[in-house]
Amino acid sequence: MGGCKVRLVLIVSCSTPGRCAHLVPEGSVHAFLAEHRLRLFPDDMFADLFPTGRGRPSVPADVIATVMVLQALEGLSDRDAVRQLETNIAWKAATGLALTDEAFHSTVLVLWRNKLNKSDRPKRIFEAVATLMAESKVLSGKTRRVLDSTVLDDAVARQDTITMIATQIRRVRKLIPELASVWVREHNLEPGRPPCDWEDPADRDRLVSELVDDANELVWAAEDLVEHRALVLSDKQADAVALLALVAGQDVEPGDRPGQWRITRGTAEDRVI
After folding, report:
1. β-pair partners for 261
2. Is the pLDDT reported for residue 4 higher than 60?
3. What is the pLDDT of the chain when averaged over all its residues?
4. In Å, how far from its chain's centre is CA 105?
5. Helix (H, G, I), strand (E, B) or coil at 98
6. How many alpha carbons fall within 13 Å on the CB side of residue 6?
7. By percentage, how much of the chain surpasses pLDDT 90?
8. What gap in Å lies between CA 219 and CA 240, rounded to an integer?
9. Under DSSP, is residue 261 helix (H, G, I), strand (E, B) or coil?
10. pLDDT tens digits, one per residue of 26-37
11. Residues β-bridged to residue 262
C-alpha cells in the first residue's frame, strides 16, 4: 500500500503540465530546457514551415524542438524518442508535459524534420540554443557548462561520431567473416547506442576510446590478413575497411592519458557523414 500511495502522490503532483520540473536534477539539460523551452522555441520561430496554416501538427513547436534536442543528445530513433516522452519523467519535465499526457506519433518528428531540412534555416533549433548560451545573463556557471558540453557537443559531434563508428564496426564484421575472431567489446556489436552516461565526460570519453580501439583492431587485423595473403578483399570489403579507418580517425584526438581518445572540437570541412 505504501508504494501505491507514493505513486498516487507522484501522479497527482505532476498532473498539470509543467509540474514535473522539480523531479529532475538542478543544472541538468532537462532542467534547463524546462526553464527556457518557451523562450528558445517560440511558435513564430517556425511560422515559415507552415505558411498556409495547413498540415501543421497540433503538437506545440516548443515540445517538438525540445524532443529533437533530447533525441539528438541521446542518439535515439524517432520511435525510441517518442517512447521516452511517454515514459521518462525527465523528458516530461523538459517538454512541459504532465505525467499523464500522451506522446505524439513518431511520424510527427519525420514531418518536422523534413520541413526543417527544406527550409532556409535547417539548424535553427540548435542555433537558438547556441544564442541563448551566448547571453551570459541567462546562463552562467554550471548550467552554461552543461549546455555547452552536452547539448551542442554531444548532439552534433559525439553522438554522430559514436553512431558512425559503431555502425561501421558491425558492417565490417558482417562483410568479412574472417574478422569474426577479432575480439570486439560485445556492447559495440549490438544494435543501437552502446551504454554510456551521456552527461559524464569521463564515461563519454571511455566509450569513444573503446570504439576507436575496437575499430583499429579490426583494421589492423584486415591488413595483416591481406599482407600475409590469408585473405583477398573484394572492392566492397576493402572500401568498408577503409571507411572504418576513416570514421574512427576523422573526429577523434588523443586523450589526456596514453590509449585514451576523445572527440575533436570543431568539424573538418571534408568530413565524411
Report:
1. 254
2. no
3. 77
4. 20
5. coil
6. 3
7. 22
8. 10
9. strand
10. 767 788 888 888
11. 253
In single-letter form, the type of residue at position 243 comes to: L
Cβ-count burial of 257 within 10 angstroms (0-12 exposed, 13-18 middle, 19+ buried)? exposed
Domain ranges of the chain: 13-134, 157-263
Q: Of 155, 177, 174, 170, which is closest to residue 225 (Cα–Cα)?
A: 177
Cell 576523422: give the residue.
Answer: 250
Do 45 and 51 touch, CB atoms closer than 8 A?
A: no
Measured CA to CA, the distance from residue 103 to residue 100 in angstroms comes to: 10
What's the CA gap between 194 and 186, in Å, rounded? 9
Environment class of 166 (CB within 10 Å of its CB; exposed 0-12, middle 13-18, buried 19+): buried
Backbone φ/ψ region at 85: left (φ over 0), alpha (ψ -120 to 50), beta: alpha
* pLDDT tens, residue by residue, 138-168: 444 434 433 443 444 444 445 567 878 888 8
Q: How far apart are CA 32 and CA 139, in angstroms?
A: 9
